[in-house]
């Protein structure tokens, strides 16, 4: 039975995320349309919203544009407007130049600017008010990710009747790093406005609970934090691990279509029918270990371990956060490295590294996954990594090898089927890549079967149901490994 209503009272389920699940596109004739946006979060929640007719509060992705609420692909969209200055200070600044590097092990140095923090607070307040305006009495509001960590507490102040869940899609850092943040206690208090604070891994939830114990006056009991409520009593905030996934059966079905299969053969042919195709697919982000992967491949070619006429690396890097300095610098480094390797080793008709700075539709991604013998996921730190799961879902032929960094959330679930690697250890990475390239068929099949069972049985529908059941209090299921 539907669990939400769309009466004048508001929506029983409201998702609040930095981005709306649709992109605004202007056609050549000047008319505008909304198209389903790519990306992990959208893939994760859109099916649920379509089924339940919930509302989604988010930013349309351009500065200074105001839109009325609208319906798109079965979802009620409630746009939040950001000015150009707010995009700079809240989105590019505090979210992606302070929190993003801090939460990813300070791979790039986080910047701490008071003006960015002020804007982060103002924008979080705006998102919270928009959600408060559309949520039904006693409804559930599900707040997503690091851009909106203050929303739970603001929302609770505005609407104490709501059940509030927060899910952090990225890692939560160890308290030794989190403690750098000048506004660390405000961020923790913001999150503690929720009834449930969800993380990708048990280790992230444990980091959060340690930060709460160390940096606030709150006490914790196993995976609960005790906080004062509005009537002078106390309430409990639950922290737990809810590893996100993909719509696995849809991706599996897409990859099996004759069109995608034909395109996979075509890609192989266009690459010169090499014996082994290695693939990397990432947003162009310094957390993904793209340089480490290309460096390892370049050395394998240069030291003669692999021959570019038989082994090819395809790297798809989708443009991301292009106004942030660390991303501009990364792009230069990656493109310089690719150019250097190709310049040294390429030959007429053979290129060592095929590098594409584009994003592609799901069909092309599925075809690339089907064409690739080895998928390289070498993140230095990654909340989950859904590309790893997409590769597995696409391999209904039960072949192909997933090389997976230990520093991804996915490694917690996929360790028994993937070849794990430490991307900082270039020699180790090279050895793992070679082991993947020459893995015997039997071992490949055993491993891929394990991976497929895990991914197909734990899809995103199960993830969202599990999380929402805990928020609604109809289930207490969550990772219990924090209880000891
Ligand atoms: C990560 C984050 C998301 C974010 C996405 C794309 O997956 O966890 O919150 O939406 O990257 O980044 P962007 O800055 O383009 O929204």
Automatic annotation (TrEMBL):
InterPro entries: Glyco_trans_20. Gene3D superfamilies: Glycogen Phosphorylase B. It comes from the Bacteria. Belongs to the glycosyltransferase 20 family. This is Trehalose-6-phosphate synthase. It comes from Flavimobilis rhizosphaerae. The lineage of its organism: Bacteria, Bacillati, Actinomycetota, Actinomycetes, Micrococcales.
């Amino acid at each position: 039975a539907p669990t939400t209503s769309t009466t004048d009272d508001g929506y029983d389920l409201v998702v609040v995320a930095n981005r709306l699940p649709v992109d605004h596109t202007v056609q050549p004739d000047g008319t505008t349309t909304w198209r389903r946006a790519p990306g992990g979060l959208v893939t994760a929640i859109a099916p649920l919203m379509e089924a339940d007719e919930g509302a989604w509060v988010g930013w349309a992705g351009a500065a200074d544009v105001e839109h009325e609420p609208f319906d798109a692909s079965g979802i009620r969209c409630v746009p939040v407007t950001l000015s150009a200055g707010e995009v700079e200070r809240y989105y590019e600044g505090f979210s992606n130049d302070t929190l993003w590097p801090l939460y990813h092990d300070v791979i790039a140095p986080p910047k701490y600017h008071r003006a960015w923090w002020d804007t982060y607070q103002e924008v979080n307040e705006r998102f919270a008010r928009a959600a408060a305006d559309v949520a039904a009495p006693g409804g559930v509001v599900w707040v997503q990710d690091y851009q909106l960590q203050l929303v739970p507490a603001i929302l609770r102040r505005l609407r104490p009747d709501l059940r509030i869940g927060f899910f952090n899609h990225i890692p939560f850092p160890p308290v030794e790093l989190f403690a750098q943040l000048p506004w660390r206690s405000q961020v923790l208090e913001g999150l503690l406005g929720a009834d449930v604070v969800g993380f990708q891994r048990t280790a992230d939830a444990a980091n959060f609970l340690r930060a709460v114990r160390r940096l606030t006056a709150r006490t914790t009991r196993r995976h609960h934090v005790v906080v004062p409520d509005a009537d002078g009593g106390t309430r409990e905030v639950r922290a737990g691990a809810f590893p996100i996934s993909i719509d696995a059966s849809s991706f599996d079905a897409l990859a099996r279509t004759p069109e995608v299969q034909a395109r996979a053969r075509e890609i192989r042919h266009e690459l010169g029918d090499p014996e082994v195709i290695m693939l990397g697919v990432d947003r162009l982000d310094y957390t993904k270990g793209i340089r480490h992967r290309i460096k390892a491949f370049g050395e394998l070619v240069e030291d003669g371990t692999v021959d570019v006429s038989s082994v090819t690396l395809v790297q798809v890097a989708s443009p991301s956060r292009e106004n942030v300095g660390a991303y501009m610098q990364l792009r230069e480094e990656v493109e310089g490295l690719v150019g250097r390797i190709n310049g040294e080793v390429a030959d007429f008709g053979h290129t060592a590294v095929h590098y594409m700075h584009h994003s592609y539709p799901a069909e092309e991604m599925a075809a690339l996954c089907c064409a690739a013998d080895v998928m390289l996921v070498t993140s230095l730190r990654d909340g989950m990594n859904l590309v790893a799961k997409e590769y597995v879902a696409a391999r209904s032929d039960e072949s192909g090898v997933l090389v997976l960094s230990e520093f991804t959330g996915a490694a917690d679930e996929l360790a028994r089927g993937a070849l794990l690697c430490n991307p900082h250890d270039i020699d180790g990475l090279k050895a793992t890549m070679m082991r993947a390239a020459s893995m015997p068929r039997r071992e490949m099949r055993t491993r891929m079967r394990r991976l497929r069972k895990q991914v197909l049985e734990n899809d995103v529908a199960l993830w969202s149901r599990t999380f929402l059941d805990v928020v609604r209090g109809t289930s207490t299921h969550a990772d219990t490994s924090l209880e000891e």
